[in-house]
Write a structure and sequence with these properties.
The chain has about 525 residues and is an all-alpha fold. It has three domains: about 55-405, Na+/H+ antiporter like fold; about 420-475; about 485-525. The protein is built from 20 helices and no strands. The chain has helices spanning about 5-25, 30-45, 55-70, 75-80, 85-110, 115-125, 130-135, 145-175, 180-210, 215-235, 240-255, 260-285, 300-340, 345-355, 360-370, 375-405, 420-440, 450-470, 475-500, 505-525. The two termini are about 45 Å apart. Residues about 410-415 have low confidence and may be disordered.
Length: about 525
């Protein structure tokens, strides 16, 4: 297959992605499920080009920017407040799942070495950040639960990859050392965090001094790969380095990015993450062709193979439920002993934590990277692909139904008593702006230099304060006000287009005035 043919096939894939995205939206399906199905169909078309995935290349190309994006938009305060619970899932659940699934695999396939069984457990253990994001953005969850799921998917790759490497090392050498495994985990994790902090602070220092929005956006695109590749080269976790940089950027974005840069970067990253996520799921579907025929030494019949795959997939799903409910029971007992009131919906949250365990590109790439001569490799590939398909399509497709059934999503964000509502925060912002304009609009002699501007900000403060006290009372007035403003924007846009079509203004004048109107409309729509 020539390079030109590969590029043409890539264009076909991107075209299919756009069509599948529209179909998924029209049918209210999870986009990730539609993309996997599309990849499956393309893989089964007679004469379709065969694409062999290099697992290392897949991880290097796709994982860093997607991890960076997810970490960048993480709610930092909620992430920090729930860090212990996140680590409980990202480390504890991964280790528990690896051991439990490894034992089940050994029971179902006695011919497999223990090291291979535990390697499969490590491959299947971590929910994927990309898969989680693609599903969670379509459902409404309390902030704490959403942070737990997103935070877990960001951090669990490091622990699962360490466990996998230890298992493969045991397979290759025939020995296992708990001391070596613990040391490896510590070096990878702590080293990755330290590297991410160093690179992140250096990048923040540079961005503060770069005034060009285009250069800054290109730098934000480059940094995830710099962190990931540097970490892997230095023998630490590139995943942790990238996630740490993303969290650091997310915290400092409001200080270092000018308004134009932030808006442009958000639009750029939105398109980029959409394409990368879609390509990943399509390639998961296309990877079906890489699964070789049945290994008769492990499973003598197709029926035994199907039973083995189904048993391991079911065990992986059940084990996550056991951990979720077990951790919830421990929290409930600890709270009861301390006399802390029980949080409403605790057991419903456990059900959602158990069900929202979508697997994705990391599991697939690690499975594809297993040694060619490893016993049961075809079984590992088939089981991994089946679990990804089941969790993304079945669990991801029914997650919103489970949320409605448990009632966990009712009310949207959790009612945190120490947090201001949006209306209260808007009133505080209006007061700060009014106080600032009162100082700037008056000269040293006490003369008002900008009376209309001062009047405008005083009016905004009064309206925002009233609206914070009675959100429903001013809604009709605000809607009418915004409708009138939108009408003026439409009229202005029509006029400058008329002048341009008549040849009375230059193109650059049209673009400049159109940008002003676009900003006014964006301010209204947000």
């Amino acid at each position: 297959m020539s390079d030109v043919a590969r590029f043409e096939f890539l264009l076909v894939i991107i075209s299919a992605i756009l069509i599948l995205a529209l179909v998924a939206r029209r049918l209210s399906l999870p986009p990730s499920a539609a993309f996997i199905a599309g990849g499956l169909v393309m893989a089964l078309i007679p004469g379709a080009p065969s694409i062999t995935l290099d697992p290392d290349l897949v991880l290097v190309i796709f994982l860093p920017p997607l991890l960076m994006s997810s970490a960048y938009f993480t709610v930092w305060a909620s992430f920090r407040a729930n860090l212990v619970s996140i680590l409980n899932l990202a480390v504890g659940a991964v280790l528990f799942s690896t051991l439990a699934v490894g034992c089940v695999t050994r029971w179902l396939a006695p011919g497999l070495p223990w090291s291979v069984c535990f390697a499969l457990g490590a491959i299947l253990a971590p929910p994927d950040a990309v898969a989680a994001k693609s599903v969670l953005e379509r459902v409404r969850l309390p902030e704490r639960l959403s942070t737990l799921l997103e935070g877990e998917s960001l951090l669990n790759d490091a622990s699962s990859i360490v466990v996998y490497r230890v298992a493969i090392a045991a397979f290759l050498t025939g020995t296992f050392s708990i001391t070596r495994a613990t040391t490896m985990f510590g070096v990878l994790s702590v080293g990755g965090v330290a590297l991410g902090l160093a690179l992140g602070w250096a990048a923040v220092f540079l961005i503060r001094r770069i005034g060009n929005a285009t250069v800054v956006i290109c730098l934000t695109l480059l940094l995830p790969w710099v962190g990931y590749v540097t970490g892997e080269r230095l023998g630490v976790s590139g995943v942790m380095a990238t996630v740490t940089m993303g969290l650091l950027f997310g915290w400092h974005q409001h200080e270092v990015f000018p308004a134009k840069t932030r808006r442009s970067a958000d639009a750029f990253w939105e398109v980029l993450t959409f394409l990368l996520e879609a390509l990943i799921f399509v390639m998961i579907g296309l990877s079906l062709h890489s699964i070789a025929p049945l290994d008769h030494e492990i499973f003598p019949t197709t029926g035994r193979l199907v039973g083995g795959v189904a048993g391991v997939v079911l065990a992986t799903i059940v084990v996550r439920f056991i951990w979720a409910y077990g951790a919830t029971a421990v929290d409930w007992t600890r709270a009861a002993l301390r006399g802390i009131p029980h949080r409403k919906g605790r057991w419903g949250e456990a059900a959602i934590l158990g069900w929202a365990g979508m697997r994705g590109v990391v599991s697939l790439a690690v499975a594809l990277s297993t040694p060619e001569d490893m016993p049961g490799r075809n079984f590992v590939l088939l089981t991994t692909f089946t679990l990804i398909l089941v969790t993304v399509v079945v669990q991801g497709g029914t997650l919103s139904t489970l949320i409605r059934w448990t009632g966990v999503g009712e009310g949207g964000e959790e009612a945190d008593g120490f947090l201001l509502t949006e209306h209260e925060a808007r009133a505080r912002m209006a007061t700060a702006q009014r106080e600032a304009i009162e100082k700037l609009a008056v000269n040293e002699a006490g003369e008002v230099l900008h009376p209309r501007l001062l009047e405008q900000y005083r009016f905004r403060e009064g309206a925002a304060t009233r609206y914070s006290r009675d959100p429903g009372g001013l809604k009709n007035d605000r809607d009418a006000h915004y409708a009138a403003l939108k009408g003026t924007i439409v009229a202005g846009r029509s006029e400058i287009l008329r002048l341009h079509r008549a040849g009375k203004i230059h193109d650059h004048v049209l673009r400049r005035l159109e940008t002003e109107l676009d900003l006014q409309q964006l301010a209204l729509e947000t």
